[in-house]
Design brief:
Layout: E1 27-32, H1 36-40, H2 42-51, E2 59-63, H3 69-78, E3 83-89, E4 92-98, E5 101-104, H4 112-119, E6 125-128, H5 148-155, H6 163-176, E7 183-186, H7 193-208, H8 210-219, E8 225-228, H9 236-245, E9 253-255, E10 260-264, E11 280-282, H10 286-310, H11 315-320, H12 322-336, H13 348-359, H14 368-372, H15 375-392, H16 398-410, H17 428-440, H18 443-446, H19 449-452, H20 459-475, H21 477-486
Parallel strand pairs: 1-2, 1-6, 2-5, 3-9, 6-7, 10-11
Antiparallel strand pairs: 3-4, 8-10
Helix pairs in contact: 4-6, 5-7, 6-7, 7-8, 10-12, 10-15, 10-16, 12-21, 15-16, 16-20, 16-21, 20-21
Length: 487
Amino acid sequence: MSLGNKTLATLPTGVERPRYDRSKLTAGIVHIGLGNFHRAHQAWYLHRLMQQGEALDWAIIGAGVRPGDAAMRDKLLEQDCLTTLIELDPSGTSAEVTGAMIDFLPVEEDNATLITTMTDPAIRIVSLTVTEGGYFLDGSGALDTSHGDIIHDATYPDAPRTAFGAIIAALKARRDRGLMPFTCQCCDNLQNNGEILRQVIIGLAELSAPDLADWINENAAFPNAMVDCIVPATGQAERDLVHKIGIDDAAPVTHENYRQWVIEDRFCAGRPPWENVGATLTQDVHAYESMKIRMLNAGHQVLANVGEILGLPTISSCMQDAQVSAFFSKVQTEEIAPYVDAVPDLSPQKYLALIEKRFANPAIRDTTRRVAFDGSSRHFGFVIPILQDAIEAKGSIVGLALVEALWARMCAGLREDGSVIEPNDPHWMALTEAAVKARSNPGAWLEQSVFYAGVADDMAFKAAFDDWLTLIWRDGARAALDRYLAT
């Protein structure tokens, strides 16, 4: 059955669907970067509110700033912006059609329609999921003012290429019309993600309009948030699954049966009452962010790189491998958890047990390739900060050094069975060049100062990294895991 407003009443039995009148929804949010995660997470929370008769004036308008976003736009508009969510659990599968999104803007080089839409006073939140590597940060974590897109947006602020330039142009138009700003809400996996978004917006605005930058800084809001739900990429298997259920959805989303959203309650133009459907609103997100980013996101990198080297196709298959799962547990327990604070009702040890259960879910086909993607951002953002804390505390770094050596080995582009690891990072060519050099000179990998400036001079880390990478190339990844697990 084709998915659309006209077929909602006749969807297969057992499929949950919108109980609200979608024709009466009005927009309050523009979301930029509308992929699977947003539809399974933020849009789902809003849909749940609407199912209770709340937040009907907070519907989502989708947007994208990359040419590739146009394909998603076509698919979703064809089905009235409805999405089938399929929850995958070892005990069974369930499906739900959500309808909190009501439009998807055209994808334009100058982002003119996006800017006009964000200028509308009805839009009170502009949210983003543009991936961890999409914030134009340099090696020090500051805005990379040498990037071509940033230079363009600073030079031509009325015709920006980036989401951030479009946001600034819309905020300028609102200021010039005497309107208050909207809240800028980052939903990406970044520590202090709201502050990072503020830094990028203010930093870019200062390049062309310092007075506007001051106005944004004083009046707009950039709440920090922690988001969590495992959402695999959609491929033919997922499309086949939704067809088996009886729905023709061109862009279905599968997800685990777990969600968490912790939001700093700091909004300048109101917000939906997300706490009514399970989100946590707080004044201090940092401890939640730190626990999730360090244990789950860094933990993903612990698994995915060795998984790629060994040809383990999914995260669940990594967890089913006794040696790899033991490696994961040991690194987490001895070298990550000591640098994570407890949050209300949840210790690091309990959170680790929860993560292990989630990662081991065989119903979730979350590929090691997807999780290993953009390691240059994910190691820099998730793993290296833990390593820095461990070095400062004079704690063990042997396992973390092995994690980094496995990343270096993976970036050489060949699995141990000889099969090719296709390019999987925006900086793949540079990473591969460094990885090939590091085969005979491990220190060449650590010379990538954009990642290792804060740790490469630590002699204990450097020695451990050299030993691990030498052993991996000589005897294989499993030999390295064996040695580490024996310590």
